[in-house]
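agent: user wants the structure for Adenine DNA glycosylase from Zhouia spongiae. delegating to structure tool.
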Amino acid sequence: MFSSKIRQWYKANKRALPWRESQDPYRIWLSEIMLQQTRVEQGLPYYKKFTENYPTVFQLAAASEEEVLKMWQGLGYYSRARNLHATAKHVAENLNGIFPDSYKELKKLKGVGDYTASAIASFCFDIPEPVVDGNVYRVLARYFGVDFAINSTEGIKYFKELASELIDKGNPAEYNQGIMEFGAIQCKPQSPKCGTCPLNDGCLALQKGRIEQLPVKLKKTKVKDRYFNYLVLRSEGETLIRQRRQKDIWQNLYEFPLIESKQELDIQQLEEHPYFTALLAGANYSLTLFNAQPKVHKLSHQHLYTKFWVVHLHAPIENGIPCQELDEYPMPVLIANFVEEYSF
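agent: tool returned. relaying tokens verbatim.
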């Protein structure tokens, strides 16, 4: 009864989305990687851009990582883009462009976890493997009144088993897409449409007044504050950027030379910093602060308090690039927004 109601609701209410018009594993995989931790409205333009520029896995594999990161710019969670490119190369070069057709083999692909493997297996190959994403957790937790935390080991196991029992084995693709869509549109995190819900007669959370309490989630990791000071060098239409190589946020993206500090720096503290003195050793320069108040850039577990210091030099910049070429490099949104605001 539960699964049939979900499917009936889906047939009447599903949104027209381009990846739903295909059973091509490449396009399904692309959409699922893009929509992880991303709203459909935000991910849709990127999906269209990628499928236009890379209509097959071979074309995505042939692109450079830098090009892929530039195309991904603004979507966040850049490790997804790096894994996407690595998997495309693996499928194109080692699997003749053919994606695995089993959950077990799909899960071996870089960046593909339980959810994505289940989605591709069911959507493309009609394998009755249940998907469990944030929307599914919410629907199941509310309807069945489940108190297990969705991000606990016990909870993840329980919900996967529950989802396995409920899946429509005769039509797993429609059911899986249906329950995800149901959570996105009907059983929303805030202000769910309980009055028109086809499951409201059996929903334990609704009966017991616990809609806002479910699903249960363990508290997130404490947010870490970081203080970034970017040195924006200017000389004769040139500037200097560096590629982030360390295993940290924004790996392989480009930024201006960076001094990270334990607290905000004033102009004197900045000029006395060893990195600053090494970078500008003997140079004739003038220094101004672009933004009096730090720009606060919020990531999932980090808040970046950022100052942009403009350094005008009276000599050419070693290894500098023309300012007009800045938009050719993949950059974090924080840097890209500054470039646009500063108007080089």
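agent: one observation worth passing along. The CA atoms of residues 244 and 292 lie 26 Å apart.
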